[in-house]
Write a structure and sequence with these properties.
about 240 residues; about 10% strand; alpha/beta; Rossmann fold; globular; disordered N terminus; 9 helices
Amino acid sequence: MIARFTSTNNHSEMNLELHALIFDLDGVIVHTPEIHRRSWHRLAEELHVPFTEEQHYRMQGLVRRASLDVFLNGAPISDELAQQYMDRKNSFFVELLRDLKPDAVCPGIVPLISEARAAGLKVALGSSSQNARNVLAALQLLPLFDMVADGNTVSRNKPAPDIFLWVAEQLGITPAQAAVFEDSRAGMQAALTGGFWAVGIGGEHGPGAHIVVSTLAGFTLSALREQIQYFHEKTGK
C-alpha cells in the first residue's frame, strides 16, 4: 500500500539520542547520477531531442515522472506515452547497472553503517529511485539495511517528507531520533520539513542542514553525535 503523510516539523523537539541513520541513495551511497545521465542521453538520441547537463542537474532527487517533465522541458505528453518513455529509459538504466560493482560505493559509507549497526542503531534507505533495491543488491549492501523505502513506497516523494516519515514509522522511532544523509535540495527539504537531523553532503543540498560535510570518508558515528551535541548547545534546539 502506498502511504501518505501530513508534513510535520519537530525542530523544536530535537532529540539528542539517535536510534537510526537514514540514507539517500544517489550521490550519497553511490554516484548513480552518471548512469542516469547516460540513460537519459540514450533516450534523447533515440527520440532525436536535445538533452543538456542543465536538465540533468535539475533532475537530481526527483522521481521518474518529474524527471521526464524536465527531460521534455515541460512539453505536454499523454500518460501512456510518458510511461513508454520512462520504461525505455529505465531499461537503459538497468542495462548499465550490470556494470555497477561494490567498489563503486562512496567512501565512508560501509564503515559508518557498520559502526551504527554495531552500536545498535537501525539503518534505512529513503530514496526516490524505483531501482533502489537493485542498486543496493548490485553493491552487495542490501543485507546491511533494516528498511528500504523507494520511489514506490509513498504517494508524495521528495521534497515532501513522506518517505522519511514512513521509514521512521516502520522503525518505531520519532523523526528527531534519526539522522538523514542527503546531497540534493529536494532531499534536504524533505528531511528538514519532517523534523529529522539533517546531514548535508557536498555542496548541492541547499541551506538548512544541521551538519555539513564534503564527504563521508572518515566520518564516524561519534563525530555525528558530537556535532549534533554542538548544534544543540549552540542553538538551544
